Amino acid sequence: MTLPGTDVDLLARVVVGDYEALNDIMRIHEDRVFAVCLRMMGDREKALDSTQETFLTVFRKAGQFKGEAALGTWIYRIAVNTCYDQLRKEKRRRTAPLPDELDPQDPSALERLESAGLRPELQSALDTLPAEFRSAVILSDLQGLSLHQVALILGVPVGTVKSRVFRGRRLLAKVLGNQNT
Amino acid sequence: MAALADGSLHDEDRARSRLTSCEVCRAEYESHRSVLVATRSAEPIEMSGTERAALHRDVLSAMANSASTPTRRSSFLWPRFGYATVALFLVVGLVGVLSQAGVFSNQDRSLGTLGGSSNAVTAEGAEKSPQAGFAPPTTAAATADMSAAGNGSDDPAAYEPLIEQARKYPRPSPSAGYYSDASVATRAESCIDQAGLDSSFQPIGNVNDASQFILVVPEITELTDETPITVIDFTTCQIVHVDG
């Protein structure tokens, strides 16, 4: 995490078109943003696209950052919203319904997840969750953020985050349980 | 149980003592623990050198290609003012045309009717106002929607058996795996939103095992016998009962 003063300074430099400042911001936050995008999208290429779109949005909206939240929180929020958008676009593009769960018998599906560096059983379970539950579980349980931070990122009350994490874990437990049996 | 499992609960002793006596709670706790073990053992994700280089190259080239510098809030307010001005002219023009056509010639009477109908709605609402704690659909449209869907009723008495069941519901025992189907869970969440409740409200069960009616509470981790329950008609997403 960066200091708030540094955050504001960096963003101020981005606003006036200082590319090196954006490069610095990317270096600090790119791994965390990529991790969230990869968990949300389940595919490295799509995650890279979403990460790229996230930082372009940071560049475009740099002038709107007021420094009330930490820069990391603001960037996480843009990343999650970018992933929601990408998932919605994908859903619209689909011509045939996809299975809710990955077929464990389908070797290509498993290979895809393994090559993405994800544990297939965990990622395929995450993929079954509605996007709102998935983002809450990813930020809270996989990224290790506090409920308060997750609430700020998702723009919902802490109670809603608790509820989404609770329901998300419950669904995950069920899917993971089914996979292990 | 979720808070106990992830260590964010303040009063752990009370929750742990509950674990020994409540089988459902224990199952709930175990399922949360199993998920946390799986997520915490997940390896950290990092970008490869190639991905990192590609990201920096693509973002910086996209920035260089975009002719404009980052948008400041003020820079895109002008088009909005432009749209607002056009809309204002259209409204003024429309009002002028209608005035010429004599639509507003009896303005006083029109306003009187409007006030009258508003009062009539209020009076109707008050007339239908049932016993304390019961909230039937508040507008004629909502009632019509419920009737059109073939469910619900604008007669408060019709809900009495339902509310009776709701009061008997064993509140501190949310059933394990409730709405395990993700699509149903999402639909329930959306229904709760449509009903105008804060999204921290969540379903804890069905009234009398009827899937049409869902019981919701504000906070599942703090359920007590005193927790007020709200009943939502799952088919119309209307609140049919608010406790207390």
**Helix/strand/pairing class of chain A, anyone?**
mainly alpha
Major sheet details of chain B: 4 strands, antiparallel
**What percentage of residues of chain B falls in helices of 4 or more residues?**
40-55%
Largest sheet of chain A: none
Task: Write down the Rg of chain A.
Answer: 17 Å
**Percentage beta strand of chain B:** 5-15%
Query: Helix/strand-derived class of chain B?
Result: alpha+beta
What shape does the CA trace of chain B take?
A: flat
In total, the number of strands of chain B is 4
Number of helices of chain B: 9
List the chains of the largest interface with their residue counts: A-B, 59 and 53 residues
Count of extended strands of chain A: 0
Kindly report how far apart the N and C termini of chain A lie.
Answer: 41 Å
Note the main attributes of this structure:
heterodimer, A: 181 residues, 9 helices, globular, B: 244 residues, alpha+beta, 4-stranded antiparallel β-sheet, flat
Structure description:
The complex is a heterodimer of chains A (181) and B (244). Residues 95-105 of chain A have low confidence and may be disordered. Chain A has helices spanning 4-15, 19-41, 44-61, 71-93, 107-115, 120-127, 131-142, 147-154, 158-180. By secondary structure, chain A is mainly alpha-helical. Helix content of chain A is 75%, strand content 0%. With 244 residues, chain B is of the alpha+beta class. Chain B has helices at residues 2-6, 12-21, 23-40, 49-65, 77-100, 107-128, 140-148, 160-168, 182-194; strands at 202-207, 210-217, 230-233, 238-242. In chain B, strands 1-2-3-4 form a four-stranded antiparallel sheet. In chain B, a hairpin with a 4-residue loop joins strand 3 (230-233) and strand 4.
